[in-house]
Amino acid sequence: MDLFLKILTTAGLIIIGVLLFELIIFFHEGGHFVSAKLSGVKVNEFALGMGPKLFSFTKGETTYSLRLLPIGGFCAMEGEDEDSDNPRSFNNAKLYKRLIIIVAGAVMNIVLGLIFMTILLFPGKYLDSQTVALFVPNSYSASSGLQVGDTITSVNGYKINNFMDFSYSMAKIKVSEEDGSTLQIYRQDGANYVMDSMSLVSTADEFAAMTVGEYYGYAAKYTDRIHDAQSKGEVDEIITEFYDDMSEQYPDEQFASPEIKEKETRQRFRADMTVLRDGEKVTLEDVDFYTFTTSDSDKVQMSIDFYTESREKNIFSFAGDVASQTVSVVRMVVDSLVGIVRGEFGFSDVSGPIGATRATVEVASQSLKSGFGNAVLSIVYVMMVITINLGVVNMLPFPALDGGRFVFLLIEGIFRKPIPRKVEAIVNAVGLGLLLLFMLIISIKDIIQIFI
């Protein structure tokens, strides 16, 4: 019964994902459709999906159809891809109207992104910030100079305006090999010793009755001093004091000897940061973040090792965050595209529809552990990124994309003469061919990754 319920739930999440993806296409093509109608341009067909028609109906001059494959859609306008003598054809419309029609698809993608962002931010009682409120006791960033009350304004040069910017900037940090003999890493090992030792007696009556905050507070009596230690000898004195205290309290427990074994190098997620501290900008270099591996994988992972302050949620702060964080997703997409060009992201980091679907299902499955509602919100988050990504990418000045058509129209406006249809058709055909080839290669890569 549990297996059947899990299969049914997973199938439901996939269906929700497909429907949301089609909603993205509907908004994009709907932008073209509505702007064309308002501009007096004849629309021959408005379709959701690609491939063979499942059903269709005609109302007025437009055929509306639903097609078999839920991988796209189109808004076919009279005179869009061929010459037409119809005075209401796309090619005979005024230039500014054609520019609006082309841009409208991307604009509606951003509008849908705003709607998705509203859904994502609505449930919580408070709003996130990028101001440090509390460190976990063995925080690496606390050992690196970050302080409670610091408001993070940039990470590795990436400007931070809100929590979305902060999350993205943290995700960009790469693991690196660092000198393992520094005082900074020695402090981190000292704080880890305290937390590892406390985990051995975490079920004892004294600790079991504590809240997480109280438990952290007990550890912080030692770890706060370790973070501020000015020498390795001082760290040794503190952990020896801790060892003596714990050995006295729990004489039957065998605690590890309070000795820190240094290594030549350590893997760390490290970044340079700028923070606002007491009203002044402070630059922090080589800030580390908690680095770990799990029993399931040897892959080194990073955890944000502090909590941020919550902000009051009212209609004004809520609306401001919806707008601000949507803009941040646009920035994130643009920065990712620039990163691909610069070689900051490898071929394996790029995904097509198959990879996006797989990622959506994986994220939803993980979130499902904490409830169906959280799984749906996870899908909404992925779809929010996808719709904004579609809007931005579609406006790139590449043939066959809306951005390519936009450039052709700008050239027409500058030279007061349209580019010959034959030339435009050849350029778009070549561009479409390259796009399809690229998507084929990406799809093959995504399929291979499923089985690796």
Q: How would you sum up this structure in a few lines?
A:
The protein contains twelve helices and ten strands. The protein is an alpha+beta fold. It is elongated, with a radius of gyration of 28 Å.
Percent helix: 40-55%
Shape: elongated
Mean pLDDT: 88
Q: In angstroms, what separates the terminal alpha carbons?
A: 30 Å
Portion in strands: 15-25%
Q: Uncertain regions: pLDDT < 50 for 5+ in a row?
A: none
What is the H/E order?
HEEHEEEHEHHHHEEEEHHHHH
> Quaternary status of these chains?
single chain
Largest sheet: 6 strands, antiparallel
Question: Would you tell me the structural class of the helices and strands?
Answer: alpha+beta
The count of DSSP E runs of length 2 or more, i.e. the number of strands, is: 10
What is the overall number of helices? 12
Report the C-alpha radius of gyration, rounded: 28 Å
